[in-house]
Structures are given as C-alpha cells and as structure tokens.
Specification:
The chain is mainly α and 230 residues long. Helices cover 46% and strands 7% of the residues. The protein has two domains: 121 residues, Serine Threonine Protein Phosphatase 5, Tetratricopeptide repeat (Alpha Horseshoe); 109 residues, Ankyrin repeat-containing domain (Serine Threonine Protein Phosphatase 5, Tetratricopeptide repeat). It is elongated.
Length: 230
C-alpha cells in the first residue's frame, strides 16, 4: 500500500507493530481510529495490553489518552477484552468508565457474571442468538444458570441456519437444547418458565426439534418434553 501523498512504498509495510502488520497503522488513521500514526501505534499498544491483561498500561492510557468506549476494528475496547476472556482487562476498563451497554456478553462465565453485575443486558443478541440461546446450543450449564439468574428470557426467539439455504427463526432456547440433546439444560429451562408449546417460524415445537435427532430408540429428551407438554 503506497503512501498516497508521495507515491513511495509505505514505510510500515514490512513492519509488525504490537502484533499487528505495519500497514494497519496508516489504515487506522485513514479509518479515523487515530489522528496520527504515532497515536495509532499507541492505540495498538493498548490493544496488546488488553489482550495480555496488562492492567498497569491500560490504566495509564484509559481514559487519559483514549476514551474508554473507543471503537477499534469494529469492537469497543471492552468487547476486545471480553472476547479474549481477559477478566482483569475487563475489570480495568469498567473502572475507567467503559459502558457495559455497548458490549455484548461473551467469553467465560466469570467474565459474563462481572458484566451482568455492571448492568449488561442478558438478552442482547449476538448475530441471530441471544446469550441464553447460544449457551443452550453449547450445553453450557453454568452459563445457562447464570443467565437464568439474571432474568434472561427463556422464550426469546433465535435464528439458526441448518444449512446455507435453510434458516429457521423464532427458535426458543428450549428448542435448541432439545435439538442438541442437552437434557439437563432443557430441565433448567422448563423450571425457569420455558414454554414447550411455543412454535418456530416453521410451526415446530421443542418436541419436534427433539425428534429431529436420529439414532435413538428411547430418548429421555422426548420423554421430558412430552411430559411437559401435557
């Protein structure tokens, strides 16, 4: 990527700066993430600090040099910390004033518990999923329990792609747990008020999703949902 003013090869091209390719530096200025290349380099040092739980450097740069809600590469600083599961960085950014409402839940249970304590929305979507929907798909019982305690909606709709051309909408967390065979999770959802009679965009209930699973003559999930549907 040549320098637009001089037409000469960009001096950053063959360098690496805090783990990022050098060409990223002038691109950050071009995208408005930094005013100068020097500031861009300092911002990359902050991103590296977030990725490695370098709380001392985070406190030095935020909010004195960079706004705590700055967006870098389409994510807020807090989201960068959350995605990488760096709870010390998450805690430092929250203390510096990062707005938890500008960050979706993600990462491990401990990180999500901290975000929820600071007012994160337990129903904020990531793509087509609610946090509870994603946790039910994964069979993450600890995360499901955390989200239920935080009043996540057990009947919220999720969108899933069965293949590249087949999308089903309004799938409840119970449907997703049933489809994946996560029996304990399904029981937790029913106890939290999940409605087994809810239907997705194709008119299917959680019981129908459980029956999608093949190769099982006796399926405890089907037994559970048949009992709950009576």
């Amino acid at each position: 990527m040549p320098n637009k003013k001089t037409g000469k090869p960009n001096p950053w091209l063959l360098k690496f700066v805090h783990g990022y390719p050098g060409w990223f530096v002038p691109l950050m200025v071009e995208r408005g993430e930094a005013k100068t290349e020097a500031q861009a380099v300092k911002l990359l040092s902050l991103i590296e600090a977030i990725e490695h739980n370098d709380v001392k450097l985070i406190k030095k740069l935020v909010p004195s040099t960079f706004d705590s809600n700055l967006v870098f590469d389409e994510d807020t600083l807090l989201e960068h910390a959350v995605v990488r599961g760096q709870i010390d960085s998450v805690r430092a950014l929250l203390q510096a004033g990062a707005d938890v409402k500008k960050c979706t839940l993600g990462g491990d249970v401990e990180t999500n518990a901290l975000l929820l304590e600071h007012g994160a929305d337990p129903n904020a979507r990531v793509g087509g999923y609610t946090p509870l929907g994603g946790a039910c798909m994964a069979g993450d019982e600890a995360m499901v329990a955390l989200l239920i305690r935080a009043s996540a909606n057990p009947n919220a709709g999720n969108s899933i792609h069965l293949n590249n051309k087949h999308e089903v909408k309004n799938c409840t967390p119970l449907m997703l747990a049933a489809w994946r065979g996560h029996l304990t999770v399904a029981g937790m959802l029913l106890s939290a008020g999940a409605n087994p009679a809810k239907k997705d965009s194709e008119g299917q209930t959680a019981l129908d999703w459980a029956r999608r699973r093949k190769g099982r003559k006796a399926d405890p999930m089907i037994d559970l949902l048949e009992g709950a549907s009576r």
